[in-house]
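Per your request, structure below.
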């Protein structure tokens, strides 16, 4: 159900923050070596917030009177942190996959954490059998974030990020950390099905709308967080998460930028789902710019269908097509597979871990350039965006200005 503005009717607004604030040490770079990303001027903080959406049921742990407490909303939030000296817990990948939270949501967190761990173990068993030793290395890998670091002063643009179908709690953590270090808040909610008996979310238009409802609930809660610039909001997503980002833009004119990372709306199959989203109509004007980064036609066998997304009337469309990229290169997988030297299976596309991390790094830099121009008050950053994409071998950059028709002259006015 689409909601008006960022308000959620009859929503429980109690926010429970996991952990307590403390000072933070200087920021650590997200990676090392020639393919690492240059950290921004801020340290990176991370916290988890919880609330219930009482407008939607969730047959989980009942209240004291046996009533349904409402659908759980878990918000993972990266944010610019104070870089004052002192000690605080520098997070590892494993920390992103372990949640405590309020007592009434223990079963909920245990369920999602178990699903994430099983998913990672299955990936590692396929690529580096028996899998557990490599998973242990992953869980111990340091990240750039500090849990519950004190937030930097100021107002910061907000990016709503949605992972693809089956994405885990650590989906695209490098991008979240990179954006926070450059002055952005990044909020993520899990891909959550309709009930504990159906915890996995599919990729139908109705399920994407359900996921967008979770973001609406999260946004209501984020109004209680200081420093969020709600007049500067972007929606971003990978794979089917790109359709969730589009759905948020269709619902909310406050969204000024949309980012698709190999988003399904531009592929055969996903384009059909795109057309079924509530509020979608060919020719509809969206008062936002689109940054569309994706594999080129045929890369990893992909078949593109850009008609649905391009039939919308954007203020601007910036596109980067990456030759030889893989779908996972636009997520944390592109960076972490290189960091851990996870073997690359033989493939007919000539794809390597070096290509994957290069795609990942370029995409992260392009996202910051785009956001700086659209939300950060730096229109000249569009030149940086072009240099970032044009400067990489195998990347084809294009820009199309406003795709909306000119407004008719006001009554009584005369043409120039």
């Amino acid at each position: 159900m689409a909601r008006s503005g960022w308000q959620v009717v009859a929503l429980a607004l109690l926010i429970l923050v996991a952990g307590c604030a403390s000072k933070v040490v200087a920021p650590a770079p997200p990676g090392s070596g020639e393919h690492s990303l240059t950290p921004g001027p801020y340290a990176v903080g991370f916290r988890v917030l919880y609330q219930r959406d009482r407008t939607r049921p969730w047959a989980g742990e009942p209240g004291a009177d046996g009533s349904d407490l409402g659908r759980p909303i878990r918000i993972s939030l990266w944010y610019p942190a104070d870089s004052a000296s002192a000690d605080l817990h520098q997070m590892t990948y494993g920390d992103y996959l372990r949640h405590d939270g309020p007592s009434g949501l223990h079963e909920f967190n245990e369920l999602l954490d178990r699903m994430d761990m099983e998913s990672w173990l299955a990936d590692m068993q396929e690529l580096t059998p028996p899998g557990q030793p490599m998973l242990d290395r992953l869980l111990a890998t340091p990240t750039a974030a500090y849990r519950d670091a004190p937030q930097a002063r100021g107002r910061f643009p907000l990016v709503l990020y949605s992972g693809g179908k089956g994405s885990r709690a650590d989906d695209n953590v490098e991008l979240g950390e990179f954006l926070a270090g450059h002055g952005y808040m990044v909020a993520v909610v899990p891909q959550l099905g309709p009930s504990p008996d159906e915890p996995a979310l599919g990729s139908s238009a109705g399920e994407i709308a359900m996921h967008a409802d979770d973001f609406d609930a999260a946004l209501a809660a984020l109004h209680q967080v200081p420093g969020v610039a709600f007049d500067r909001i972007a929606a971003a997503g990978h794979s089917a998460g790109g359709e969730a980002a589009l759905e948020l833009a269709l619902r909310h004119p406050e969204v000024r930028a949309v980012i698709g990372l190999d988003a399904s709306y531009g592929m055969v199959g996903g384009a059909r789902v795109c057309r079924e989203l509530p509020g979608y109509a060919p020719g509809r004007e969206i008062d936002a710019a689109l940054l569309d980064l994706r594999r080129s036609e045929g890369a990893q066998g992909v078949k593109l269908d850009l008609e649905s997304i391009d039939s919308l009337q954007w203020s601007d469309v910036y596109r980067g097509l990456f030759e030889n990229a893989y779908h996972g290169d636009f997520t944390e997988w592109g960076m972490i597979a290189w960091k851990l030297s996870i073997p690359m299976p033989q493939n007919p596309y000539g794809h390597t871990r070096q290509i994957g991390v290069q795609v990942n790094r370029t995409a992260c830099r392009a996202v910051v350039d785009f956001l700086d121009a659209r939300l950060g008050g730096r229109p000249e950053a569009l030149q940086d965006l072009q240099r970032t994409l044009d400067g990489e071998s195998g990347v084809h950059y294009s820009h199309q200005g406003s795709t909306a028709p000119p407004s008719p002259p006001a009554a009584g006015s005369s043409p120039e």
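The first strand starts at residue 12 and ends at 17.

Regards,
D.
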